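Take a look at the protein record below and flag anything odd:
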Amino acid sequence: MEQEPRVVTQRGLYFDELEEGVVYRHTPGRTMTEADNTIFSTLTMNHQALHLDAAWSQENALGGERLMNSMHTVATLIGLSVNQLTQSTIVAQLGFTEITFPKPVYAGDTLYGEVEVVAKRESKSRPGQGIVTMRHTGRNQHGDVVCVAVRNALFHKSPAALAAAERGSDA
């Protein structure tokens, strides 16, 4: 008789698996392209010359070249963490308390991300869930910090944690 293979489904980490003070590094990085910048900027109706106009940027932008749209940078930074941290384990994005861009990002730069879990607490209004504060840090290929975003998100607790809590309430 043939045995069924063990199946592992990729997911993020549950509330109870995330640890305060731990830094989670995400690979691979993402090389930003001119196409990314043009598509994202036009898709979001951000027709700012510093993202779209090479001639204008030569005279007016930092470094003399078009800057990557900062909203694309932060969105990519958050996206880098999905597979490792939030895939199928997040309930909702609750908000950002800080977003900074210490250095510009240009087409051709590669963005690398890491997340530090800054704080976590059980939800007071949603049993079986908890709120996690995460500091996302994006670095370019030289190691320069180009984006920092602090956000709060609501996470599910793991089935094991829910079962243990249920056993505890039965006692």
